Amino acid sequence: MGSVPFHRGLLDVGILRDTILPSLMLHAPLAVVAYGIGRATDSVEAKDWLWPIAPMINGWWSAVGRKMYRRGLTFNQAFGMLSRPERLLLTGVTLWGGRLFYRIASRSIKRRRQGKEYDDPRYDAEKLQAGYWNKALFTVFLPEALIQTVISLPVTAPFHHQGAVLTGYHPAVQALAVGLFCAGFTLEVLADVQLEQFKSSARDSTSVCKEGVWSLVRHPNYLGDALVHLSFPVLLYGSDMLAPVELLGSITNYLFLRYVGGDKQIERHQARRYSQSSREKFADFQRHRETHNSFWPKADVVTNRWLWTIVGAGAAGALMEQAFHHLF
């Protein structure tokens, strides 16, 4: 398939019609349902439960469900039509979404069992706004549905259109994509486990977590998430499947994590909570902000063994996938 100018491929009305609109028609109703549940339970966190689920549903519907519905195929028939890169995409979004959903659900359930707040305390301040729930559908839930739609493009758009591609087939780039995913996913899992271990210790009352992968950056879980989402367009690029519009997915995810619902939001909440509950922990939080970057590691972490643990996990994952591909 011949290539076309980047700007034309990115803005082509047909591509937008075949990619963004079908996804938005799925994400928007799910957001309305989440809003209804959230309003009924006074829980803004309802949108967070949806965040990992919607891309998984969208990915599987785009790749398999549509074929079953429109062509009358069985699940095995529809799934069997997928190429190796397409199966890798589905595996990736399923692992990513499954881990994040488990993390959000387990954290919420644990908080409620302990008799703490029903909703995530990060949202307490914004819920104090007059008439918050009357406008939240249009200011919070539906905007996030649109953001989800764009972020999901790399795992949905390839199944909706035969868009213009940017490159030829490159197995080495495919291996790089798998490595990026495995590194990012490992970083997320380790961040979850190590943070929970730290919170169960006495040190949590006077300091912030700076152990394990938390010694690399202040938010290793968000860095891992960004690497996972970056791996999707890289995989498409190496598989001769990338259309320019799909680049918007990882870019939007990165911008959201950095400037909307990620480290900026959580650190505002942490600063407010620590300053009110523990001067010692707030002081440690401030020192940690001065010595560690929020998202991207500083150059001096090159000697940190956890950096090489993550790099090694990525390399091992790429090698295992290549071995599985050639053996089976």
UniProtKB/TrEMBL annotation:
Annotated Pfam families: DUF1295 (PF06966)
GO cellular component: membrane
InterPro entries: UstE-like
PANTHER family the record matches: 3-OXO-5-ALPHA-STEROID 4-DEHYDROGENASE (PTHR32251), 3-OXO-5-ALPHA-STEROID 4-DEHYDROGENASE (DUF1295) (PTHR32251:SF15)
Name of the protein this chain belongs to: Steroid 5-alpha reductase C-terminal domain-containing protein
Biological source species: Xylaria bambusicola
